[in-house]
């Protein structure tokens, strides 16, 4: 079972992602801001297989989370999901090491395929 951390301040998005990712294959943890994400990552010793994060959030944004995760000895794959999809933000995410980028509203089948692809690639 793959462990996924969802960092999202929108209340609806975690419900959508939970419906898309089957509980038989994925264990989904949700936090609602960057501060909670750092606390969760540290308390689990960065023990996630994948992180899905928004960009615009309180306390620490998705780019800050991405930078910290990618500086770890075992970097975790990161998918950025955002409705702030201008080209500069997308390029900044990839420069910081994002593995993928999805624009909101997400397409369920696309999220599932991209999650599976990244998890297979990193086994």
UniProtKB/TrEMBL annotation:
Domain Response regulatory, first and last residues per copy: 3-119
| Modification sites for 4-aspartylphosphate | 54
Q: Does the keyword Phosphoprotein apply?
A: yes
Region forming the signal peptide: none
- Provide a GO biological process annotation: phosphorelay signal transduction system
InterPro entries the record matches: Bact_response_regulator (IPR050595), CheY-like_superfamily (IPR011006), Sig_transdc_resp-reg_receiver (IPR001789)
Entry keywords, A to Z: Phosphoprotein
Q: What is the protein's given name?
A: Response regulator receiver domain-containing protein
Q: Which organism is it from?
A: Chitinophaga arvensicola
